[in-house]
DNA sequence: ATTTAGGGTTAGATGAGGCTAAAACAGGGT
DNA sequence: ACCCTGTTTTAGCCTCATCTAACCCTAAAT
């Protein structure tokens, strides 16, 4: 069996891989998990021994198929929990992350299945992130793109708000940036700051690049094809 | 903060104390938690350092007030989880224990409160065990007594079935021994085996002492006063 | 081709939580 | 009073996940 710490490493590597498509460096993992580099190195040794990562010393790691499956399993647990906590236990959008981040390592497969049943097999969590299916096949890359890649005048629909910080999420909700809402892009500054107006609010919001790049949006269906 | 292992020790000591009223011996804890005596000794050192147990070397421990509060906290989590899993996630009476035994260490106070709300502040779990109140005051000793203390011909109501083994619990449910049912005692053998007939079933059940002493029953209200 | 800056790995320590084997103790039997 | 037996504690060791300090490698700059 894998420890919850190992699960966190695999999840972190998976998520870093989604962003870069390159081998993941020790320092990136260290920063993500808030541990020191030597700690990461020794854990990568263990994960390599167990066949969960492919490693080239000094050049970073990638997940093996098996490692990816474990990561997807943990992410499925996490996102199902987030969905369940908001739907059935009166949690707020902004506060679910921390709870799910602990519980994801401690629920049984049975619990996972009951939660999925209670939610009628959901496919996205409250932040709009896709929930991996029960078979743990690598999911398709979702459509849309970061809001930072659009231009003044574009009208888009928010698909996902992938930030994990409760205060940032509360702020976004207060300003009408949630999955499903329509945004009109007002300005994209050279340093990545995005200013937009939400269809559900009268004023506009400005998001620094660090926040904006977690907001994935898509062009509304009518404008496609 | 306390580790989940420490929480398990405190819970075990609390529960052993409920049964004996004497100082709890190293070997009793070792057996309960399935570890060796030296392991228990060293953990008792740590718990004593933190003021959670009173210790006399070679003579066992008792919980301090603070230790008892922690134990009650963990037990509250456990029993709320058992109740929630059966009420809202379609778990069976018999299978909740294992899940609750892990999760009890990993839920937040917020989660505890939401679960208690969803259940409308329950006072007993599915096995009939009392759920400690949110203020964690030591609860009253529940009324009734082990079914082994009754005699042929007595008619009693099952108050609690405190066994933790899923197979034993399934067996008991199959034979009509659950909280709320009426039992007529048919025989109490000298070695503690109890034979009884459940009001909800036609045949009778025989329970060895080891099982029977977990079945707490009370005389029906009409016969009291 | 060297240097060098920056990140990665190795070495060694720590604190939990566990083990086995050996020593020390409590309490009952003579 | 002494001994015996069974339990508890001590001593010493292990693994896991973490750290700091020291050393080493890669890749870019000269
Ligand atoms: Mn999350
Ligand atoms: Mn799963
Ligand atoms: Mn239980
Ligand atoms: Mn609590």
From TrEMBL, chains A, B:
InterPro entries: DtxR_MntR_Metal-Reg, Fe-transptr_FeoA-like, Fe_dep_repressor, Fe_dep_repressor_sf, FeoA_core_dom, HTH_DTXR, HTH_MarR-typ, Iron_dep_repressor
MF-aspect GO terms: DNA binding; DNA-binding transcription factor activity; protein dimerization activity; transition metal ion binding
Name used for this protein in its record: DtxR family iron (Metal) dependent repressor
Region (Disordered): 121-150
Key word Iron present: yes
Family label: Belongs to the DtxR/MntR family.
Pfam families noted in UniProt: Fe_dep_repr_C, Fe_dep_repress, FeoA
Highest taxon above the source species: Archaea
Assembly and binders: Homodimer.
Keyword annotations: DNA-binding, Iron, Transcription, Transcription regulation
Residue intervals of the HTH dtxR-type domain: 2-64
SUPFAM superfamilies listed in its UniProt record: C-terminal domain of transcriptional repressors, Iron-dependent repressor protein, dimerization domain, Winged helix' DNA-binding domain
Annotated source species: Natronorubrum sulfidifaciens JCM 14089
PROSITE patterns: HTH_DTXR
